[in-house]
Write a structure and sequence with these properties.
Elements (H helix, E strand, L loop, with lengths): L3 H19 L8 H8 L25 H16 L4 H12 L8 H5 L17 H11 L15 H4 L1 H7 L5 H12 L3 H20 L5 H9 L11 H5 L6 H7 L3 H9 L5 H16 L6 H6 L3 H12 L4
Length: 310
Amino acid sequence: MTTVSDRRVASVVGALVADAGAQPLHWLYNEEKLKGIIGDKEEIEFWEPSHNPFYRIPAGSHTCYGDQAYVILKSLVANKGVDCEALKKSTYEWFGPQSAYEDPENARYTVDVKRTLPISRPWRHASIKHFLANMEQGKEDTGSEADDQIDSVLRMVPVCALYAGRPEMLDRVEDVLRVTQNSDMAVSIALAAARILEQFILHGQTKDVLERVLADLSNNQRQNPQELDRAVAGYLRQSALHGALTATDFAQGVRATMRVGGCNASRGGFIGACTAAQFGLEGIPESWRQRTNTYPEILTLARQLCDIFP
């Protein structure tokens, strides 16, 4: 029987291990091409060689989204909770002009520009580009107002793990999300995801999570109400959030979302968090943990995170 503390740790580790597992097949939007690569193989995680069409980095490394969650995790531990100014600084340092993410091809990339891809370094995605520009312009609100991508459901995991069961959980999640994504849609989706993950952290395996979250989203007295809550609720049964509710174990859930391609790492990270919270750290296969380059560090950080509010 796992404790709440065990489930907090497992959710953080599960998210980042899943992200690393999905990375070599990240952003493959051509489903036929993806099927041609993986065929009928069951073990598609940590695929070698990488077939990522945008960037190629060593297997076991995190995607740009996993790196954001990792930076958030480190900031939470270092500052004993959410400190947005400190997080802005550490995010700028990790992704900024002096980082491994600096690349001229990536810098000039837009969907209508002919490009030479993949690059041989990590990929700096749109919301981070907007964040860096806003930081350099000295803006107080640094998050991208134009980016609605679902990576918000991965970034919220360490914050939810720390604050689950506390009344300020959703507020702290929103604070962190808006550092790089100041988009109501991205925030609303991630807050719904945080509500789901919180249920698994507090209660472990339970069958009525979706009903509880849907009821909460329709409650006029709910914590941290968003204008888009009801719209998001309408999609819960058919979204990546639903994948977290139907997974039978960690590997099955993450592999299932990897097989449909696209932004599998952000979806997989969220599913990895939820399944790990349900089935415990031991539910994450040892082979996955061993192949995640940051595993020893993220396990230590996750345990330190859970010591902040004993």
